Amino acid sequence: MRGRFTWGIIAITVAVFLLDAVSGGKLLVLGAKSPGLWSGEYYRLITATFLHGGLIHLLLNMYALYIFGNLVEQLAGGWRFLAIYLFAGAAGYVASLMAQPLALAVGASASIFGLMGYTLHYRLRRLPRQFMPIDTAFLQILGINLLLGLLVPRIDQSAHLGGLLGGMLMGSIVGIPSVRGKPQRNWLEQVLAILLSFALIMPTLFPVSVANIIQPVWPAAANWIDARYGQYSSPLWAHGISLVWSYKDENEWSPAPLQELYPRNNRPVDLAIYWRWERGLNATRPVPYRIIWRVQEEGQLPQEHVQTGVGIHPDPNPSLLYYRGKVTAQSGQWQVQVEVDGRLVYQNQLPVLAISEGAK
Asked: Among 90, 93, 20, which residue's Cα sits nearest to residue 51?
């Protein structure tokens, strides 16, 4: 059957979409690209490719897969096509993890861009430098992705670029067809492509290990990696850290404003910090945390209030944030910092400026 691997993937993807709809979106939560990758859930690099956020998302991706899947399957063969598809999807979600660590992401588009990358590799290596029918397919897919950008919110362009690069690397790894149709490989090119693939993927999946390795020779880069990704290597990490406020006598919490807070009539307010514990890497020990409140009141020396605690296990409800600490805030320049397992993971500042009841 022509394109049987392509049609097989389309059938599996549609079946997963229907099962996810029946489950109320549970499959999407369990299989999407997320920081869960850093806790050892590496299967998400594959499962995210077979999940979709909506019917339009699914239909447009399946149409693109039909176009490029059949093309690459004819060029490379069924099993090589499958390897390209899965590897490109994983490469795309590795890139997405690096660019947007906290964002959930799903869809076949990273793999489809990988098929485009393989086709582009073939196009540049084997075909004349003139417009050909194969270029029409590229233009169609570009149009589809422009349409996706308009119709589907939060398109993950980093995953697309990662998938495209993954597909081009797979052109060197699995080979491209010769004139006689059998894929040919250059062993040196193949080895270099494999090494480059590891060099791109491993630092993202194991960022702290990479930071420790390069610390002696490139401390600035190591510190940046640890600051951006290090918290996910702790047994627990704080997700969704939020600063909220309430009048002290009301206990009705609201998100802290972006600039200044104006409590009326000199009423005292409480500032509080909420977050949710997520499972990190090797969750075998409690994780200490500190909340540091600093205030500079007019005409007075700065004051500091420190609250400490310990995280024991991930919080049960993934849709809730949990109370961690608060302070009563009179007028002044307030700053809050959160340290988890010795790392600074959050900081914010909020001027609290009291005004009288009749002031604007």
From this structure: 20
**Cβ-Cβ contacts under 8 Å for 111 (sequence gap 6 or more):** 49, 65, 85, 86, 88, 89, 92, 163
Query: According to CATH, where is 2.70.50.30 located in the chain?
Result: 234-352
Q: Which residue ranges does the chain devote to CATH 1.20.1540.10?
A: 4-211
Comparing CA positions, the residue from 295, 291, 313, 287 lying closest to residue 241 is 291
The token duo for 124 is 């540049």
Q: pLDDT tens for residues 317-330? A: 988 999 999 999 88
Lowest-confidence range among 94-98, 283-287, 332-336? 283-287
Residue 77: closest CA among 123, 125, 135, 118: 118
3-state SS assignment for residue 274: strand
What residues contact 105, with CB distance under 8 A and at least 6 apart?
32, 33, 34, 48, 93, 96, 156, 159
Q: How confident is the model over 218-242, as pLDDT tens digits?
A: 999 999 999 899 999 899 999 999 9
Sign of the dihedral defined by the CA atoms of residues 232, 236, 240, 242, in that order: negative
**Considering only the top CATH level, what class is 4-211?**
mainly alpha
Neighbouring C-beta atoms of residue 142, cutoff 10 Å:
11
pLDDT at 132 over 80: no
Q: Supply the DSSP symbol for 186.
A: -
Running DSSP on this structure, what letter comes out for residue 25? S
pLDDT tens per residue across span 25-40: 999 999 999 999 998 8
Query: Residue 287 pairs with which residues in a beta bridge?
Result: 311
- Strands 254-255, 303-311: pairing is unpaired
pTM above 0.90, yes or no: no
Active site residues: 109, 160
What CATH number matches the domain at 234-352, 3.60.10.10, 1.10.10.60, 3.30.70.1400, 2.70.50.30?
Answer: 2.70.50.30
Q: CA–CA separation, 5 vs 75, rounded Å?
A: 13
Q: Which of 213, 198, 136, 197 is nearest to 165 (CA)?
A: 197
pLDDT of 138 > 80? The answer is: no
